[in-house]
């Protein structure tokens, strides 16, 4: 049997056969999320990105909540209690539609909900998690500041005691969902180290401004948070999170989702390029017939295939409770970098059409520039892995 007779058995973005290692239930989760994306997101996303606005964001959030996407890997309190692999597959399908939609889900579930679920009091969990799981309350996660990004230990936002209250002053920058949020998880320095606070966004002294002029993640709300004498009761503090390990534990969750999600954006761009190349004729033949185009398609396909196996290996390790955070850095660094390269290459295959929002490629490419930077830049993940390999921190 020739290779071309085998062709129909191969999935172009999964030549290594990762799909074979998924259970029927996992495939069903993936299909469900894909179908929802095809109905609720794909017909509109190009327009949302171009206008920098999602129409009826509360309506979309509530639809995503209905199928259990918010905090889907958390247990209890109205959360779906699915596996890490299920959650990863969902992120992949969401990001095949748009990184901004995956961000909406990641920040809600992996950052804001996880912070409360892992570090919050019983009262905080019961108060916030069910409505957040339903998508009727939206959360954001404020770690980054205008002068503090990769090194959150240097944060300037402060929380001071005033009687039994806490009073927060400072600002946070580049905060996803910030100006649409009902609650903000705010990390602040105290005399006892960095602590987390659940801040209802209606609290006096709290304000949020949307950041404009973005050329990336345009179908996602990104904001500055201002905290001016924000007075909170003592019950607003996350009681069990002390020090940087509080926020970093949340980042582990979100980075895990991203290492799957980025492959979705890469896959969508690869598929668009493969389809386009088969139809585009130059010099009297489809451009798929040129060796240089085939080289690009082959390289993209192999990177997607390897990235899928890496994501699944990391997902299985997470489900089995043997995942090391450094492995998350390996997945985030590799898969985002690979997906961005795939999008850039796909864009060249589309020629001039590659720069048009009529096709998804430039949107994914621009989005992945943010994904490469947020949740730890590629340099930070390189240094995390470097430290693990050598025992020597090279951050400063
Ligand atoms: P270091 O001294 O190494 O550690 C401080 C404490 O944290 C613990 N720790 C971790 N805990 C859990 N998970 C991890 N991955 C952890 N890494 C470290 C560590 O054990 C220690 O605990 P303790 O109890 O002994 O105090 O910390 P460092 O200050 O040297 O920093 C290390 C570094 C640079 C790697 C870290 O600061 C870092 O990852 N920086 C990047 C910042 C970042 O990723 N920001 C993301 C903001 S959120 C966001 O971007 C959302 S994007 C929207 C979306 O997701 O869609
Ligand atoms: P900097 O830390 O200033 O880094 C600038 C450059 O210097 C980078 O290339 C970096 O890798 C490099 N660099 C820094 N230190 C070193 C070093 N020691 N060695 C080598 N190179 C170094 N944050 C939140 O808290 N919540 C959110 O919801 C959130 N959402 C975001 C959404 C978007 C669309 C974007 C773009 C960002 C978001 N962020 C969020 C912020 C994001 O986490 C930060 O942008 C990121 O951590 C990097 O910080 P910075 O931009 O300040 O860059």
Automatic annotation (TrEMBL):
The keyword Oxidoreductase applies. Gene3D superfamilies: Acyl-CoA dehydrogenase/oxidase, N-terminal domain, Butyryl-CoA Dehydrogenase, subunit A, domain 2, Butyryl-CoA Dehydrogenase, subunit A, domain 3. Pfam families: Acyl-CoA_dh_1, Acyl-CoA_dh_M, Acyl-CoA_dh_N. It comes from the Bacteria. Residues 140-230 form the Acyl-CoA oxidase/dehydrogenase middle domain. Residues 23-135 form the Acyl-CoA dehydrogenase/oxidase N-terminal domain. One of its GO terms (molecular function) is glutaryl-CoA dehydrogenase activity. Residues 243-389 form the Acyl-CoA dehydrogenase/oxidase C-terminal domain. Belongs to the acyl-CoA dehydrogenase family. This is Acyl-CoA dehydrogenase, short-chain specific. It comes from Mycolicibacterium vanbaalenii. The gene is bcd_2.
